[in-house]
């Protein structure tokens, strides 16, 4: 694809100091931007300001390099008008998907007419990972969203083993496996109810998780690649952030069917970079749109360049805007 002129890109993400460049997808995308000559800025979500109809960000120009411990160099802070001064905003801070996150989507939505925001902030707000997936319940394991202990007990009795997890959690945090005995189930539900005001998710336990939880990345609706994440000993959580290991993989026929069903809708919504999770080659559990990861492992196993694919898709979106 013919590259557009070098772009000015503002990246809304977590602090640069704390990222692990060996596996951080946002850093991978920033390196790909550098290769294309794009100018990068970094800012945090709290650095956003709305003033007199404009959305501003106190941002710092940043140079990135693949050198552990010396992976970025900041310039002096500047106040950017995100609608006038930049071509692309990457919304890449990690959850929690809380009111702060939602507020950032509302502010960034106000610059969409002038600047491409990836992923589309309104679409992100309307598609939290564990709720958007309910649109594709036909691919999911038996699932319940509730705060009611009696409902959870009934669900456990029906399915034998269950997994309980927060509705807006991330990186495998607070994911619990409850066996047939239901030991500590009441205490666990009490803990969830006291820790979060929203309902929580309960799913039938899929034994196939022991063989891995596949992360499949889609770029503008098309499959870019996949990596199998295998839980550590004694774990059901396969997230790399909690000790899971990565393995090369291919898509099953069922996974291809799932991706074909999701792809057009992701593209229509402006969800350009998405990671879906599939267990046992057939059970869809999440659609990650806030800050999906996994592309470093995928590229290492497959010899691909997902960062370049993302920038090609961004270029295509920008070209379509100009043509319109």
UniProtKB/TrEMBL annotation:
Name its pathway.
Sulfur metabolism; glutathione biosynthesis; glutathione from L-cysteine and L-glutamate: step 2/2
Where does the chain cross the membrane? none
Q: Name one Pfam family in it.
A: GSH-S_N
Reaction catalyzed = gamma-L-glutamyl-L-cysteine + glycine + ATP = glutathione + ADP + phosphate + H(+)
Gene Ontology cellular-component terms for this entry are: cytoplasm
- Does the record bear ATP-binding in its keywords? yes
Can you say what this protein is called?
Glutathione synthetase
Its keywords, alphabetically, are: ATP-binding, Glutathione biosynthesis, Ligase, Magnesium, Manganese, Metal-binding, Nucleotide-binding
- Name the cofactor(s): Mn(2+); Mg(2+)
SUPFAM superfamilies assigned: Glutathione synthetase ATP-binding domain-like, PreATP-grasp domain
Enumerate the PANTHER family for this protein: GLUTATHIONE SYNTHETASE, RIBOSOMAL PROTEIN S6 MODIFICATION PROTEIN
Question: What would be the name of the gene that encodes this protein?
Answer: gshB
Which lineage? Bacteria, Pseudomonadati, Pseudomonadota, Alphaproteobacteria, Sphingomonadales
Domain called ATP-grasp: residue spans: 130-315
User: What is stated as this protein's family in its record?
Assistant: Belongs to the prokaryotic GSH synthase family.
Does the record's keyword annotation contain Ligase? Answer: yes
A GO MF term: glutathione synthase activity
Superkingdom to which the source organism belongs: Bacteria
- Supply the InterPro entries for this chain: ATP-grasp, ATP_grasp_subdomain_1, Glut_synth_pro, GSHS_ATP-bd, GSHS_N, PreATP-grasp_dom_sf
Assigned EC number: 6.3.2.3
